[in-house]
Design goal:
The chain is of the alpha/beta class. 37% of the residues lie in helices and 14% in strands. The strands form two sheets. It has an eight-stranded mixed β-sheet with strand order 3-4-5-2-6-7-1-8. A five-stranded mixed β-sheet has the order 11-10-9-12-13. Helix 12 (354-367) packs across helix 13 (377-389) and helix 15 (433-440) crosses helix 17 (469-475).
Length: 508
Amino acid sequence: MLVINEQINVDYELAQDMSQFYADPLGFVIYAFPWTSDKSIQVCELKGKWKKKYNSIYGPDEWACEFLEDLGKAVKDRGFDGHQAVDAIRMAVSSGHGIGKSAMTGWINTWIQCTRPFSQGTVTANTFQQLETKTWAQIKKWMKLCVASHWFTIGASRIYHNDYPEQWFCSAQTCREENSESFAGQHAVNSTSYYINDEASAIPDSIFEVQEGGLTDGEPMQFSFGNPTRNTGRFRECWRKFRHRWETYKIDSRNVQITNKNFLKEMISDYGLDSDTVKVRILGEFPKSSVKQFINEGDVEECKGRSLRKPSYQFAPIVIGVDPAWSGDDEFVIYMRQGLFSKMLGVWEKNDNDIEMANILARLEDDYDADAVHIDGGFGTGVASAGKTMGRNWQIIWFSSKSPDPGCLNLRAHMWNEMRVWLKNGACIPNDDILHTDLIGPETKPRLDGKIQLEAKEDMKRRGIPSPNRADALALTFAMPVVSKDPKGISHRVKLVQHDFDPYKGEN
């Protein structure tokens, strides 16, 4: 009985200690783990102000100390009272290899579980192997090392509090898109619901989106770590489209104590400091383009909002591309291109009224005096048929058709390749973030014969990338060569620019 009482007293004092670290994750990491006695974790020396503050030789590296301090500040700033929900804490780290990201996931998880009763967390990674052998292995390692480890049961894919296994836990979950719904339903109204994403560059966008549903109650948190291998996707957008929501960090492997500096120097010597290989694997910077990315983001950026003088494109035929919506969340898009100039003429939600859309298209064809209209045959045959009854000669384009270029697998690859060259040649595109994302989204599929093949829309959706409807509409303008309907090659282009005056009107 004496032993039981002593254990109760120890746990009570330990719980009191843990409560002091509610908004101090760095202090918790120093307190909770055996830095002075376990040589296996004596990897980094505490530096500067932290060495003096904590009177410890060993501990987290500098980048990790700064990260944990910022996390503590975010907790204090929100001031969660256990009842009223606060804004989610979102923190993302882009880094080179070997900086200790997986160890950080272990520290964060252990800190939350030990300081927040009834917290609920999910940990995921880009592959099952990464999750099992590295990320979750680190989660278990640091929980076992924690001074409060006896409070928890540590399993192969789940860690839970001994007394509240269904209410107070953390679980490992694979990030396959088909499992995205398994990330739903996690709520901790009076505590912390949190998600930890490791090697987040390759985690499907759909996983991020489902996670956001668990960030509405209590004191929610979301952490994403990874090497910046892809220049697309939700992890990339933490630094771009969603930068107002995320605290972001870029960690250079050269500035981390545990990395092999000689190896890093060799890589820089072999590939060059400006190479994408060094940017991704050492500097923690996103590449100009992903390894498989078909259209370079730099080319897209240079073309966005570019100003062109009218004489530089007025001589060219006017082509309209139409990409009807495939599914409920896709767009019906109409694009116009004239030489290096392009313009989105309209975008609509999925609309199955072919006659209505045909009338809209006919009106746009007349307004712009277009020389050709190309419609994706996948779901556009109804619109084309409606146009035929109106006397329109619209061309149905089948993406799977044979390419006129033997270097491309099919017509879709040919159109996109022509569009890629067009962008490199100084094209003008709207300053449109969705079009930007569409253009850089598709990846290539390697082939033994060397032909260009783009991944299917279904494959893009499986990795969380939406169907590139706007880019496909623009690509359709490259489906086949087009010449001006007007033998003079002038009148329709004057009309496009100046509707109230046409010097050739009425001439034969």
